[in-house]
Amino acid sequence: MPAHIVSKDGFRRLIQTLDKRYQLPSRTHFTRFAIPEMYEKCKAGVEHELKQVKYFATTTDMWSSRTMEPYMSLTVHYVNDNFEMK
């Protein structure tokens, strides 16, 4: 979901309908603080997981949306010490 959604009247009305007391943070809050913080936590978690793995396989895919927005994905697969596929 794009960060500018929090500026849209429809989204703001939806949030107010769900909880009138909730103060929706600004778009700037999400782009400068919330999203970078989530990114760093996620990155640290992935790094921690992969440091414990001796071997892994990767897959990649690239595509574009109907509006020609480019996307790329990277997937990592491995089996942990308990033989669980991750």
From TrEMBL:
InterPro entries: ZnF_BED_domain_contain
Name of the featured protein: Uncharacterized protein
Species of provenance: Cirrhinus mrigala
